[in-house]
Write a structure and sequence with these properties.
The complex is a heterotrimer of chains A (287), B (92) and C (385).
Chain A: E1 2-3, H1 33-47, E2 54-58, H2 66-69, E3 73-76, H3 82-92, E4 97-103, H4 104-110, H5 112-121, E5 125-131, E6 134-135, E7 141-142, H6 166-173, E8 177-182, H7 186-198, E9 203-208, H8 212-218, H9 224-234, E10 235-237, E11 254-261, H10 267-286
Parallel strand pairs in A: 2-3, 2-4, 4-5, 5-9, 8-9, 10-11
Antiparallel strand pairs in A: 6-7, 8-11
Helix pairs in contact in A: 1-7, 4-5, 5-6
Chain B: E1 10-16, H1 26-30, E2 36-38, E3 50-52, H2 63-67, E4 73-81
Antiparallel strand pairs in B: 1-4, 2-3
Chain C: E1 11-16, H1 17-28, E2 32-35, H2 42-51, E3 58-61, H3 65-77, E4 82-86, H4 88-93, H5 95-104, E5 108-116, E6 122-126, H6 131-136, E7 145-147, H7 152-169, E8 172-178, H8 179-182, E9 185-190, E10 234-236, H9 250-265, E11 274-277, E12 284-288, H10 291-305, E13 310-315, E14 317-319, H11 323-332, E15 335-339, H12 346-354, E16 359-363, H13 373-384
Parallel strand pairs in C: 2-3, 2-4, 4-5, 5-8, 7-8, 12-13, 12-15, 15-16
Antiparallel strand pairs in C: 1-9, 5-6, 7-14, 11-13
Helix pairs in contact in C: 1-2, 1-7, 3-5, 10-13, 11-12
The chains are: A alpha/beta (287), B alpha+beta (92), C alpha/beta (385).
């Protein structure tokens, strides 16, 4: 057999979505964030969204750097406040598809309040939370997702606080689409992202990803690859499982899947509906 | 010969950005046909990038590309010219 | 550019400062507000919430002031004109995002209806102790513009000015009201829309390939874009280069911070708004702003009736501080009497600018009510001797 080679060197499918003038990025060898960005690029292609109308808003942290690397209108905002920024952005320009791409510490710790309110309001945001169980950028401090017993610089004798179960938090706050995958589940992540882009309302995707330099190394869990192999072995797909049952303990089974996919009016729709109702009835009453 | 699998109409070609790779090994491990291995050589940053194993054929599934956190590898499917044959496998 | 008639409540009204501030924002074209209830500013957003649907604007009560102060900036980058409203404790919470607005050069207005402080303080009573915070509250080096109305009419007029300045200089503008002015009800004349000048947002006309988000024009200010127009730009709070990319070297820091600071500092001649009275032959100049200026002016009038040569200078723009005016006066007057509802804030600026050429006397006040004009008169008389 002879293979006919392409006439010109093809490009990596992720390249059109990257600010190539800023490559290489700052993420460590074996970090899972880059993997999620590949899924993001493919999801954008598949969903056929007009790229001029996609905006990415990040907070501070390793995952927060995604905004700076994607070739879209992108905003690297303050720690924890990507979601309210994105809420204002979307309300001012409803044509945009607004993606919030940030880490567990940023979105859930300092950003926790904004997270639950945006989910409650059903703000039309696509929230991608890369959860590496640690504060990576600042050197490996404990996060509200760190499993009990895991070591971190600010819990050097092991984390002792019960971590958040993010899908449960998202669902109970009112998110209309909730999924969790690991960085191993590249095809599932891509599919979920496409669904989230097309979904109206607060869509939340948690992606468990390795932090080899800090979480893995401090806890003697090996390399990024070993983390990915662990995800492959120890994760179990349970689409539709109750989010109450999705707690994660240190190095135990990780339940992944799509858990919530419901419909309810978005923030804008609810606002408009209510105004319409009241103002119409008032002007009718005046007549 | 009647039960032999028909020859593939496509195969893959893998492109590796030698100096961009950070040797994490995702591509090697997750390649479904195990056609990659980390080389003994170093790149400019001291990492061992992957290479296509000899005698192995990439299928162009691009799983390596989607896994690579450094955007340093991807594969594409290329059409294969098959020799016309009668009822048998075509030559490699 | 003129104001949109559908946003302007032309006519003669009887409004308090909060209400007039809201109308000023709407008249200026602010079509997005985010806020959190806090006395004595709440009425501004309550009125806005009620007016917004009728003028096609959006109001969102956010979960806290941190969210409010950044939601308005998201809205601005989406193409809206936006402001938020708060008082002391909320103003403290907004500090990080004021810095973000200064760093990213996001035009927006922050209204602080000052009340007694510190901490929870006197929620329903006036104070003027946030003025230094308005200038220095966020970390790092930056400049802002702060306006200070002393009547409901000025709450309307200067609010429009606040938006215009924020657009012109691409800087967050602090609108320093106080509870006295905010809850005082007076006649407010709202002119016809075509009598109101609105500074349009400085959107670029360059195509995406030629556009650099932070490349300054001749006045040191870059042109702006908004999301969704195909520019695929990047905005970050990190020290950045002209492309908006993080560039964390001391050289880029020097270049950027110098420009952020100089775009305001070097335009001092254009950036001043003062009300003055009787300065020509003054020996003593009373300086006051906001609600304190109402009683201070009364004291100055009483002093003049007693044939004392007293002048009055009321900065309507507190920051940048009217240095030149003070320096010039310091050459020839004997003393400045600074009347402020705090234990010394603007007085330090006056003292600095006087540079020892004139005496600077502070008339402090803990807040909660205004100075008694008779007390001010007493001090003026003592100083005039």
């Amino acid at each position: 057999m002879s293979a006919s080679l392409p006439d010109t060197q093809p490009t990596n499918p992720v390249i059109p979505f990257l600010r190539t003038d800023r490559m290489p990025h700052i993420w460590c060898p074996g970090c899972g964030i880059g993997t999620t960005v590949n899924c993001f690029a493919r999801a954008l292609v598949e969903s056929k969204l007009p790229l001029d109308k996609v905006a990415v808003v990040s907070g501070i942290g390793c995952t927060g750097r995604v905004a700076g690397y994607v070739k879209l209108d992108s905003f690297h905002t303050t720690h924890g406040r990507a979601i309210p920024f994105a809420t204002g952005l979307k309300l001012a320009n409803p044509e945009l598809t607004v993606v919030v791409y940030s880490g567990d510490g940023d979105l859930i710790s300092i950003g926790g309040n904004h997270f639950i309110h945006a989910a409650r309001r059903n703000a039309d945001l696509k929230v991608i939370c890369v959860n590496n169980f640690i504060y990576g950028m600042t050197g490996g401090q404990v996060a509200p997702t760190t499993p009990v017993g895991a070591l971190a610089t600010t819990s050097p004798y092991g984390a002792y606080e019960r971590p958040f179960n993010l899908p449960f938090l998202a669902e109970s706050s009112g998110a209309v689409y909730v999924a969790r995958w690991t960085a191993f589940h590249v095809r599932h992540i891509t599919r979920s992202m496409v669904k989230a882009f097309n979904k109206k309302g607060f869509a939340f995707i948690e992606i468990i990803a390795p932090c080899p330099t800090l979480y893995q190394r401090r806890n003697r869990l090996g390399t990024g690859l070993e983390a990915m192999q662990f995800y492959k072995q120890k994760s179990v797909i349970k689409n539709g499982a109750s989010t109450k049952d999705l707690d994660i303990s240190f190095q135990t089974e990780i339940v992944v899947g799509e858990f919530v996919n419901i419909e309810r009016p978005t923030l804008r729709q609810a606002m408009d509906l209510q105004l319409q109702r009241t103002l119409a009835s008032r002007s009718a009453a005046r007549k | 010969m009647a039960n032999q699998m028909p020859a593939p109409k496509f195969q893959g070609r893998v492109y590796i950005d030698w100096d961009r790779c950070k040797g994490c090994g995702f591509c090697v491990d997750f390649c479904p046909t195990k056609v990659l291995a980390l080389s003994e050589e170093f790149n400019a940053h001291g990492y061992h990038p992957p290479y296509l194993l000899p005698e192995k054929t990439c299928t162009g599934c691009d799983l390596c590309g989607i896994y690579c956190p450094d955007f340093a590898i991807f594969s594409v499917r290329v059409p294969v010219e098959t020799e016309p044959s009668e009822g048998g496998s075509s030559e490699s | 550019m003129k104001a949109d008639p559908k946003c302007v409540l032309t006519g003669v009204h009887f409004l308090d400062g909060d209400q007039a501030c809201c109308e000023g924002a709407i008249a200026a074209g602010a079509n997005f507000a985010a806020g959190y209830p806090i006395t004595p500013s709440t009425e501004i957003v309550e009125r806005y919430a009620s007016r917004a649907p009728k003028v096609g604007s959006v109001f969102l009560q956010m979960e806290d002031e941190l969210a409010s102060s950044i939601a308005i900036q998201g809205a601005v980058w989406g193409g809206a004109k936006a402001f938020t409203v708060t008082s002391g404790p909320g103003f403290s919470l907004m500090m990080e995002h004021i810095g973000f607005a200064a760093m990213t050069e996001t035009p927006c207005v922050f209204v602080d209806v000052q009340r007694g402080g510190p901490s929870t303080g006197l929620p329903t009573l006036p104070g003027q102790a946030d003025v230094m915070q308005a200038r220095w509250g966020s970390h790092g080096d930056y400049e802002i513009i702060a306006l200070c109305p002393n009547s409901p009419q000025e709450c309307f007029d200067l609010m429009i000015e606040a938006f215009n300045l924020s657009e012109q200089y691409r800087v967050p503008v602090m609108f320093m009201m106080d509870e006295g002015v905010g809850h005082m009800t007076e006649k407010v004349v709202i002119p016809a829309a075509d009598a109101i000048d609105v500074f349009p947002r400085r959107y670029t006309s360059l195509p995406p390939e030629e556009y650099f988000p932070y490349r300054p024009g001749p006045d040191g200010i870059p042109e702006m874009v908004k999301a969704g127009d195909g520019y695929q730009f990047h905005i970050t709070g990190l020290t950045h280069d002209e492309q908006g990319y993080p560039a964390m070297t001391w050289q880029e820091q020097e270049k950027l911070v110098r420009r952020l600071v100089e775009k305001i500092r070097l335009d001092g001649d254009r950036l001043k708004r003062n009300e003055t009275f009787g300065l020509e032959d003054a020996d003593v100049v009373v300086i006051a702003y906001g609600i304190s200026s109402r009683v201070a002016l009364r004291a100055v009038q009483l002093a003049r009736e007693q044939e004392l040569k007293v002048g009055f200078l009321r900065p309507q723009m507190l920051w940048p501080f009217p240095e030149k005016a003070i320096r010039k006066l310091a050459h020839r007057v004997k003393a400045f009497v600074v009347v402020e509802m705090n234990y010394g804030q603007i007085v330090y600026e006056v003292e600095r600018c006087a540079a020892g050429e004139a005496r600077t006397v502070l008339m402090p006040h803990g807040g909660g009510t205004v100075h008694d004009p008779e007390d001010i008169l007493k001090v003026i008389s003592e100083v005039a001797l």
